[in-house]
């Protein structure tokens, strides 16, 4: 598939300007979507205004974040969900941000093949984001990829990530519905790490529900939720759903819960609040990334400050304020 | 101890200006150190110039980061190291950034008591940073606490953190010597999460070396290091050291390795390179935090941008550039 795409590009020869490509994205052409996401990943300046234009055209998709530690069975669950949505006639998009994802490395070839069936039928678009080499940051690239799929009419758009790391947390926070997948029998150490993520869940899924330990995990999560009370300002009660990704058992329950949460968000007015929070976080995150990029691209602008702070002639906060343009002449302080 | 300090403050009544307090920090008074760290945690603007002054006075301490997942035995190891350093006559400082640390919650009372013995002898200063409620960010507060101890003449200064989360990673990256503690028998899921941290280790410690599984963990780490080759530009070979925090066995080996790494950094010239990298990261991290604080304190300045991005009238990148002051009138784009 990739080889075919490459040879086509080679035959055409000419580079399609991103503004042209954006039109093909809006008309839903998968090859244009794939290329536009690649340009977002490469951080090409030429693509910036086209990506901005696509952002303005989007806003209809239901964005679903699915997170869980490696080994929880995330990718298999996502595969099952793709089939469910595709069977219902939805155009489902998946962005996998996970170094262990089969979509990125081919670890589970069987799933990859079934995935391609849905993709070939035109009802699914699956893309993995490499976790290295993003000039504009992994979180930025991933959110841009979601923008592109959104503008192209995909919904739901599933973001699959391991729940650890700043980029992953930022990406999951940009979802309307957050599904946290727990696996029975994972140790307390893992639970401690996940605690922050567990609190953000709109839906809990417990994988491997055919295992006897699964019911203990379900009870533990229910206990945690009972203790925590309901989220401030929401009457949504996060359900705890046992699933088996392998046998496909009870995947329908999860799919229904995702749909119910989306309906709840729209009906209750929580969607507007959540959208605002997502946008606020994204604006600030983008600004911080742009700031960082500036000095990665021009290290010489940073150099005198690094030297002064290293030699204890200047405080790091003074240097930081100067770089932000908040203080005119830091060398006098 | 805390109660005593409080009643003294109450008797004196007056608030000591931070510039006055800084003088007492420089002369090594523990109560002044504790108060100055609290002011850094509270993000008091009044303390900023005093903290900057203390930064300029520091730069002599050996900063040691000790990281490992909850349950690895980190806090017990740190306790053993404190006693070792105190017995040698060092003024050792500890900043614990770990919600499960006994220094913050009293989970292991025995250690807490032994800790207080060293503290009472004036040779150790132990402080835990709460992981919530830092106006300037946890990483900023922690690095400021290190600055304060450094200016007061403490060395080594040990930063104890769980190795997960952006703040923790940032704090560990600010250490001269990074010790990663692994526990035998922890699952592969944990190992996968830790992979990024393992690569940064200058020294590997394996806890619970009296357990039979420990030697397998030591071999696994040695195998990983053999595969990875040596770090670019360094001829330091990270040792893998079995330790037992409970029996105190082989803590001396770890203490010697920490000293050897410090000697290596100074002798080879790597210290200067590392200091520069630490300062670069700290300047950029501080700038990003200051930027974030500005809009947390003045949400109304952010509001029109949030509304425009939420309503898809403006792209998040355009809003971000405007907030950075890089574009004059975003409303025309």
From TrEMBL, chains A, B:
Transmembrane segments: none annotated. Residues 60-196 form the AAA+ ATPase domain. Keywords: Chaperone, GTP-binding, Hydrolase, Nucleotide-binding, Plasmid. It comes from the Bacteria. Pfam families: MeaB (PF03308). GO terms for molecular function: GTP binding; GTPase activity. InterPro entries: AAA+_ATPase, GTPase/Isobutyryl-CoA_mutase, GTPase_ArgK, P-loop_NTPase. Gene3D superfamilies: P-loop containing nucleotide triphosphate hydrolases. Belongs to the SIMIBI class G3E GTPase family. ArgK/MeaB subfamily. NCBIfam families: lao (TIGR00750). This is LAO/AO transport system ATPase. It comes from Sinorhizobium medicae (strain WSM419).
């Amino acid at each position: 598939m990739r080889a075919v795409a490459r040879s086509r590009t080679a035959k055409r020869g000419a580079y399609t300007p991103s503004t042209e490509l954006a039109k093909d994205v809006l008309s839903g052409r998968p090859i244009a979507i794939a290329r536009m996401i690649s340009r977002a990943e490469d951080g090409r300046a030429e693509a910036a205004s086209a990506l901005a234009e696509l952002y303005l055209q989007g806003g209809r998709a239901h964005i679903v974040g699915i997170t869980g530690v490696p080994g929880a069975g995330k990718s298999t669950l996502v595969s099952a969900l793709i089939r469910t949505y595709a069977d219902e006639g939805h155009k489902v998009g998946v962005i996998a941000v996970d170094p262990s994802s089969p979509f990125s490395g081919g670890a589970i070839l069987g799933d990859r093949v079934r995935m391609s069936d849905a993709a070939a039928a035109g009802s699914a678009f699956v893309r993995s984001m490499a976790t290295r080499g993003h000039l504009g940051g992994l979180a930025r690239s991933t959110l841009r990829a979601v923008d592109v799929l959104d503008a192209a009419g995909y919904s739901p758009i599933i973001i699959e990530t391991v729940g650890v790391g700043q980029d992953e947390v930022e990406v999951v926070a940009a979802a309307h519905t957050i599904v946290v997948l727990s696996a029975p029998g994972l140790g307390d150490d893992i639970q401690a790490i996940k605690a922050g993520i567990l609190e953000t869940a709109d839906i809990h899924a417990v994988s491997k529900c055919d295992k006897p330990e699964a019911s203990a995990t379900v009870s533990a999560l229910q206990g945690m939720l009972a203790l925590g009370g309901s989220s401030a300002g929401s009457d949504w009660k996060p359900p705890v759903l046992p699933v088996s990704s392998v046998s496909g058992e009870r995947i329908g329950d999860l799919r229904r819960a995702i749909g119910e949460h989306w309906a709840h968000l729209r009906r209750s007015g929580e969607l507007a609040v959540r959208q605002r929070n997502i946008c606020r976080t994204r604006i600030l995150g983008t600004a911080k990334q742009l700031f960082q990029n500036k000095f990665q691209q021009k290290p010489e602008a940073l150099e005198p400050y690094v030297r002064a702070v290293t030699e204890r002639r200047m405080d790091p906060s003074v240097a930081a304020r100067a770089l932000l343009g908040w203080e005119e002449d830091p060398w006098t302080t």
